[in-house]
Amino acid sequence: MSFIIAIDGPAASGKGTIARALARHFGFHHLDTGLLYRATGVKGGDPVAAARNLTAEDLTRPQLRSAEAGQAASRVAAIPQVREALVDFQRRFAAREPGAVLDGRDIGTVICPDAQVKLYVVASDRVRADRRAAELGADPAAMLDQLRERDRRDSERASAPLRPADDAVVIDTSDLQIDEAVAAAIAAVDRVRPAR
Ligand code: CDP
Ligand code: CDP
């Protein structure tokens, strides 16, 4: 059976950075599930059809990292049929040997409720806005408004809202350097993964 690490949390909390580092450390596959929603949002047209017909090319477009793509993603992500259209791909990815790390909003709660390790990565609103603004060369105050709006939409939607799984380990990266956050995540995995 493959080993699954589910990572969820609000925008720019550091989930993707931790997910990539864990995948490298353990030799696992990594899927940034936010890209599926971003690609659906920027594709235009009927979002349900867009989600059903995503191609590898759709997932590599440079504009997917933009704040606009993030907002478009959170709008289409509230549509239950869009979410349904993306479930099988994510679950098949999670089953890849020898293991997989998936990061998003509903990995530990909906996509992989039986994941061996669940992490919920948080950081203060301000820290997250400053980090994402630095990354995109954007204004921190405007970024703070945007992230708050997106987090609210993600948390309040009826279908797979953002929330920690009951058995998730919470990692607050507000005062952590990247290597410290990664070390905390590795320690959480090592606690449940039998040494091999
Ligand atoms: O995937 P998610 O949107 O949760 O966040 P990310 O893209 O991994 O991280 C957002 C930004 O915060 C990136 O520029 C990271 O380098 C930075 N960062 C971090 O992830 N963790 C820290 N402890 C400090 C900074
Ligand atoms: O990197 P960041 O945390 O800013 O965003 P992302 O992970 O790329 O996700 C973009 C948007 O997609 C989120 O605001 C959610 O609305 C949606 N999303 C989701 O609903 N479920 C997931 N598993 C991943 C992303």
Automatic annotation (TrEMBL):
Cytidylate kinase domain mapped to chain residues: 5-40, 58-189
Catalysed reactions, semicolon-separated: dCMP + ATP = dCDP + ADP; CMP + ATP = CDP + ADP
InterPro entries listed in its UniProt record: Cytidylate_kin, Cytidylate_kinase_dom, P-loop_NTPase
Protein family according to the UniProt entry: Belongs to the cytidylate kinase family. Type 1 subfamily.
Residues bound to ATP: G9, P10, A11, A12, S13, G14, K15, G16, T17
Record's keyword terms, sorted: ATP-binding, Cytoplasm, Kinase, Nucleotide-binding, Transferase
EC number(s) from the headed UniProt entry: 2.7.4.25
An example Gene Ontology molecular-function term: kinase activity
Predominant cellular place of this UniProt entry's protein: cytoplasm
Protein name: Cytidylate kinase
Subcellular location: Cytoplasm
